[in-house]
Design brief:
Length: 55
């Protein structure tokens, strides 16, 4: 886990209501709609790569 990921987890641990909102938001993106979940995940990986992020 990167330092950025650790910092995000630590921040969410301090604000559980924000963590719940984040989980609900991600679920609405990945679980709903007509685009396959795999395609959405591939898009997320490509955006991460284009932004030079570790994923």
């Amino acid at each position: 886990m990167s330092d950025h990921e650790r910092a995000l987890c630590a921040a969410l641990a301090q604000r559980p209501q924000i963590a719940r909102t984040l989980v609900a938001h991600l679920a609405s993106i990945f679980d709903a709609g007509t685009v396959a979940r795999r395609t959405k995940e591939l898009c997320a990986v490509m955006v991460a790569r284009l932004n030079a992020c570790t994923y």
